[in-house]
Each structure stands twice: as C-alpha cells, then as structure tokens.
Amino acid sequence: MLPALIAAAAAGGVLAAGASACFIGARVLFNRVIPRQKEVRVDVSEMADGEKWEEYIKIIHRERDKLLQRKSEQVTVRTRDGLNLYGDYFPSEKPSGRTAILVHGYTSCGMNDCPAMAEYFLERNWNALIVDQRAHGKSEGDYVGFGILDRFDCLKWIDYVRGRSGADEEIALFGVSMGASTVLMASGLENFPKNVKAVIADCAFTSPYEVFKHILKRDYHLPPHPIMDINDRLCRKKAGYGFRDCSTLDAVKKGVCPILFIHGKEDKFVPAYMTEENYKACTGEKEMFIMENAGHAASMYENTELYKEKVTEFLDKYFD
C-alpha cells in the first residue's frame, strides 16, 4: 500500500540535498498518494504473508460471490462540496429496523473490502449499505480525503439511511483501515446522529500525518520535517484540507457512542499502537480486540469465527 508509494518521494527528493529537492520529494509524495488512484494498490507484505493472503483471497471472493446473489440497489448521496457518492444497498430479507454502513480502505472500494462484513450483518437481518468513499470506486472526486473530508460524507450516508428507513432506524458504522478512521472521525462531529448506536473501527490510523510520519521514520529513517510540512501545504491548497485538521484521538474524546476497536497485532502499515491510543483517548463506552498473527486489515480473515464472535458480543450489548 502506501510505503511503496512513499519510496519514490524518499528516493527522488529527500535523499538529495537542498530545499528544492525536499519540495520535489513532497510533490512526488502528494501526487502518488492524494489524487484519485487509477488502480488498487495492495502490498501483500503489509496485509499478511503471501501464503496467508492466498487463503484470505478465497474468503473474500467467496463472500463477495454470496453477496452478489442478493437483491441490491445502487444508491447515491451528494456531498457538501458537490460530489456524487455511490453505494450498494442490500435490504434484509426480514427487516429489523437496523442498518450497517460499511466503509472501505485506501485505494480500494466497498465491494472489495466489505462483502464479508456485509454478509455478517445480512445474516443477522440487518440492512447493509456498502459505500465507495470520495475518489474511490464509482464515487466522484479527484482527491482522497483520508477520513478528514470523508467524515462529513459519512453523515450524508447516515442521513440517507434515516431518510429511507425513518429517523428511528438503528445504525452501526463499520470501517476498515482508512474507512475505520473515517467512521471514528465522523463520530466526533457535533451533529452526529443519536440513532447511530455503535461504531466498529478495524485498524484505524490516528491521522494521515501520523501514519505518513510513521512510515518515513520506519522505512527511511527520516523526520517528518520538512517533507510532511510541504506536503501538508500542497494538500491544503489542492485538496482543501491539511493532514492534521482532524484526528481520531480528538474525535473519540467526545464519547458519543460505543466503539469497538480492532487491530491486527502484526500490522506493518498502521501499527497497533494507534488503536491502543484511540482506545485510551476514548471517553465513552469502548472495547478493544487485538487479533494475534493478523496483518493490516486481515483480522477478519485470520480468524473469521473469533472476529465475528467479538463483533456479535459487542453489538448485542447495544442492539436489543
């Protein structure tokens, strides 16, 4: 995923001397990370080892094939800055007054990252709404929001569900990787709807700044200054936000609704300590589960039954 992209910035600009080289490096980093990507980039070494990933792919394909046999509808919302976002809505065969909104990770899309969890909710008679974040999948947008812009988009999806199913519809948010950061950041907004009864955040980063800083230090032994400072200004100018405009740490301090924090212990991209920091900062009802032997965004596939068990135990506390 992102480390391979950042390598070009580190090699192309940072290792040379001078302010102009740093600016070039920052621009390379921006161009390879923030604009909409033409293809899904997956670094298997960060998700899990190759042998495990072959097995995970089988699970993902099986769950997606099952999901595609179900009745569904393509739905849209419009963001506050005028983008059309798209999602796939799967109605429950036995309506229960509950809907799960599922949010994918970086350079992916909803139907890549979320079918297994959508099937989980549908089997429990929930509606499932799988969304494509801005600049991903079918949704419009030129720049990735890294949760900072997407938190407002998340509210639009909640409003869509409320408009479709009624203001009393009980909602759970599920997000993985960047999607996990999106749902956590959304929960900290002042107008976060009270009928969202729970949030499940799987391997969230605390902020884009912190995850990029971590990778620069880990892989290239480089400080964030000045590359991240320059890149932050570029992002604010072109994409309309800065990397530290919001963090999950600030959001979860609001304690608005219960949160289940999940992370793979062997995550090489977003380190598990970021979820531990989120858990410590959260002032509301909370639980944390660290999956042994799981890489980035791989906990669901490393031990599917245990993952579902933990999610079920959590949801059953807040959905009668």
Salient structural properties:
320 residues; Rossmann fold; 14 helices; disordered N terminus
Side by side, the strands of the main sheet go 1-2-4-3-5-6-7-8
Query: What's the level 1 CATH class of the largest domain?
Result: Alpha Beta
**What structural class is derived from the secondary structure elements?**
alpha/beta
Q: What would CATH call the homologous superfamily of the largest domain?
A: Alpha/Beta hydrolase fold, catalytic domain
C-alpha geometry: globular
Q: Ranges with pLDDT <50 over ≥5 residues?
A: 1-17
Give helix and strand order, one letter per element, not per position.
Answer: HHHHEEEHHEHEHEHHHEHEHH
Q: Main β-sheet: number of strands, strand sense, barrel status?
A: 8 strands, mixed
For the record, give the distance between the C-alpha atoms at the N and C termini, rounded to a whole number: 39 Å
The fraction of residues assigned to DSSP E strands is: 15-25%
CATH topology of the largest domain: Rossmann fold
Counting DSSP E segments of at least 2 residues, the number of strands comes to 8
What is the count of distinct domains? 2
CATH architecture classification name of the largest domain: 3-Layer(aba) Sandwich
Radius of gyration (Å) = 19 Å
On the 0-100 scale, what is the average pLDDT?
91
Q: Tally the helices: what do you get?
A: 14
Residues in helices, as a percent range? 40-55%
What does it look like?
- This protein is α/β, with parallel strands linked by helices.
- It has two domains: 70 residues, no CATH class; 233 residues, Alpha/Beta hydrolase fold, catalytic domain (Rossmann fold, 3-Layer(aba) Sandwich), CATH 3.40.50.1820.
- It is 47% helix and 16% strand.
- The protein contains 14 helices and eight strands.
- An eight-stranded mixed beta sheet has the order 1-2-4-3-5-6-7-8, sandwiched between helices.
- It starts with a helix and ends with a helix.
